[in-house]
Amino acid sequence: MKYMLLMQFSARTADFPEISTWTPEEIRAHIAFMGDTNTMLKDAGEFVEAQGLAGPDTARIVRAGSGGAPVVTEGPFPETKEFLAGFWVVDCETSERADEIAAYISAAPGPGGKPLNMAIEARQIMAGPPDEL
Prior knowledge:
133 residues, flat
């Protein structure tokens, strides 16, 4: 089964300073942890995809307008208190294993090496429509 693990950032629940205030060493340690996590998942045959996302100030909201033309609202969105920071797609045997991976990622190091305990949303990727359809 494939699962998407979504790294959510919430200014309301974060118990750490913004990454822009971290030292270069702290940022390097955080990025190294992510790289090591990807290697661990590849070695286990569970890695499908992982990406970090640019900050929410680069986000755009797109809707279909007249005739299907894109109507774009650009950021930044100062009212946004939560945003998606990155994601993994993993292929593992059980939802419990997906939860274990999510918990491991949640403990990525932040300032002073302290685990961030950032929320990671784990969602199964559907292989097709539900049977009841």
